[in-house]
Each structure stands twice: as structure tokens, then as C-alpha cells.
Amino acid sequence: MRSPFMNSVVKIFPLFMSVAFLSGCESLQSVDRGLYSAAEAVSERDLVTGQRTLSMASRGQQIAQGNAAVEQILAEQKKAGKKTNAALDEKAYQRVVRVFDRIHRVSHLANERWLPVLIDDPSFNAFTTGGTYIVVHSGLMKDLKDDAELAAVLGHEIAHTVANHVFERQTHQTAALIAGSEAARQGGYQAAFTHESEIEADKIGILYAALAGFDPYAASRIWERQYKKEGSAKGLFFHSHPVNPERALLTRNVANQVKQYYHDGQQNPEAAALLDNNALWRKGSESVEAGSGGGLSAILGTALGAYAQHQGTKQEASRQAQQIQMMQALDKQVVVVGEKVIDQHSWQVVWENRSNVSLKDVVMGVLIKDSTGKVSRYVTHVAGNIKPAARFAGSFTLPDLKVAQLQQMQVKYYLDDATPVR
Ligand SMILES: [Zn+2]
Hints:
By secondary structure, the chain is α+β, with helices and mostly antiparallel strands. The protein has helices spanning about 10, 30-40, 60-80, 85-90, 90-105, 140-145, 145-160, 165-180, 185-210, 220-230, 245-260, 270-275, 310-335; strands spanning about 45, 50-55, 115-120, 125, 135, 335-345, 345-355, 360-370, 375-380, 390-395, 410-420. The strands form 4 sheets. It has a 3-stranded mixed beta sheet, sandwiched between helices.
């Protein structure tokens, strides 16, 4: 399932996106120790906090490797006869360049020469590969409402490189292989690791947006909109990205903290000093304690809770596993009791809550598999508190599909999200 902001790791290093299920993470603490001794030899100070982050590649090597990956994508686009940048969409490209320049100027990597690239791809996505390119899909430009939302996306992407996520992930993978750890290779752990990288990138990116004079609440607006559109799919997957409602809340909390630095349309005159010390982090020189996690994540705390890197990843993986179990148990107890066609493209479903808890914030989803095997997912939000034994209705509208066609397809309803109330 594609999400916005899906970063380079997915596209460039599919090796690291193995999908597997979690069985246990007992060995993570020893992995952490292993990483610590690896860090002795290969660490560098991370740009945001001055703390150690893992990397086996120097920045120069990172740029060469990251940029080669983007250049390969550009060559493939050209071969496929696709246009890029101004030739693709002059207005959109100018907008990317203009907003990017303002964000980049206040970032930790302002001294590097970066190049934004607009490519022809309908999905809602932008990514970096750890070098000095930032790639924006044309589909993203169509769905964004204003410059502040674009600034939120671009800030988030620069932040992935600043926080060394692409290469940190490679190094984690290598170290885990050396340590012979099963846990770190498993999907749950990998997803949780990315999950935290996403939160870090959100924090840093929203600070950049505020310093550059863009509304810091734009990121949370994007996630609220995503939630309305696609629900959260909590019951279905381990999440490499925080689920939409959670991310809307987290980004709103960050905005609350950095709005003090935001002057509409203007760069904050103290921007450079604020990069080191601000409401989110303080540049320090504390050493990383072996076995207790460290790296950039040690800066987290204020609004987001403790997400120290490895411990946090472990906790996050088990939290997700619990949540998935709970949703799957509830899913069996929310039963379809009726279906009714509304018009050519819409139909209504009635469910019954056969669990012994009330449910609120209910999102019901439907998976539709067509004859080619392609699966599409749609959601409907249900208002109110649904008591045990109560029935409730939701409707789906598919502009590109006639309800009658569904008879030839596989249709499966599921509980996408819910908050149990006891
Ligand atoms: Zn990201």
C-alpha cells in the first residue's frame, strides 16, 4: 500500500522492505550493543543534535550513491519518453523550485547545492535518496492545496537526508546481519524503524517550514485529509509509516511547539541559531549509552514520548503487533447483515457490532479484487458510538466502477479502524 512521503528506501533499496511477520524481538538489545561497537568505528555526528548517528559512508560517498540512484530513474524516464521538470509542467516546476529554495536555505544542508526534480508519475509522492536531489511526483503537485503543504513535504524529505535515515537504515541492516539477528531482519522491526524515521523527518521538516515562513500546521492538514480519504488500515499491515490519524495528531503537536518561530511569508531572522536550539531539541554532546539506544531519536521526548532508537523501535513493533491483534479480533465480531444498492456507483452496507465493547471512530473498509488480480481499497467513516449488538450503516461510492460489476469481483469488508470504549 503506497503512502505519501514514502521515501527513497522503498524505491531504491527494496531489499530492506522485506514483508514478514513479527515473532519476537528478544535479541534487539544485543543488536543495540553490537551496533554500538560498530558505531565506535564508523559513526559520525549527526547534524541535528550533534549526537552520534551510524553511517558507514562519508557524506561524499552518500551523495555519489544517492545521486546515482536518481540519475538512473531520470534515465529510465527519458527512455520511456517521459518529460521532466519545466518541460513536463512549467508552472508546477517553478513552484517546486521556489518553495524548495526557501526551505533548503533554512535547513541543516543549506551549504550543499541541491536540485529539485519533477517527474511524470501520478502517485502522491516525493522522495530523496540521501544525495542532493529531491524528486517530486507530478501527482503530488495535483493533490496539494497550497505552498505551505508543499513546504511540509519538501521539508520532510530534506530531513530524511539530514537525519541520515537512508544510510542509517543500510548500516542497521549490515550490523544486524553481522550480529546474526533474526529480529532486526523481520518486517515488524523494519516497519517500526521506518515509522520512527518518519516521525523524526516530520519534526525536523515542520521546523524548517516554520523557519522559512510557511504555516507549520500544513503537514497535519495533509494527514487529516488522508485519513478522511483512506482511513488507517490499522487492521491490515505493519506500518512503515505512522497511520494517518496518529500522524495528523503528532504533526499538530509539533506545529504547536514551533509556531512561535513562524512569521507568515518571511524567513525567521534567527533561523540559523534556532536549528541548534529550539523547542524540539538542543544540540548537545552527550555520549550514547550502549544498550539503551541513541542517535537522533534521543532528542525526541517533548511531545512525542520516548522513541529512543532501538528500544523505541522494539516497543513500537510490539505496540503495532498488539493493535493488529486487537483489530483482527474485533474484525471477526463486526458482521455484515445487509447490503443495498443506492445508485449505479454507490451502495450501502449494514453491519452489526457483535463484540462486547462499544466502538467509536469506526472506519469500515472494503477490498475489491478485479479480474486482473489488482486489489483496491476504499473506506467509509461511521459517526457515533456503536454499542454492543447495535447495527450501523456505511456507504461506498466508486466513480470508476458500476455496482453491478462487483458481482464478478471478490469483495471483502473489514474493520479498518476503531476505538473500543469500555
Ligand atoms: Zn518520509
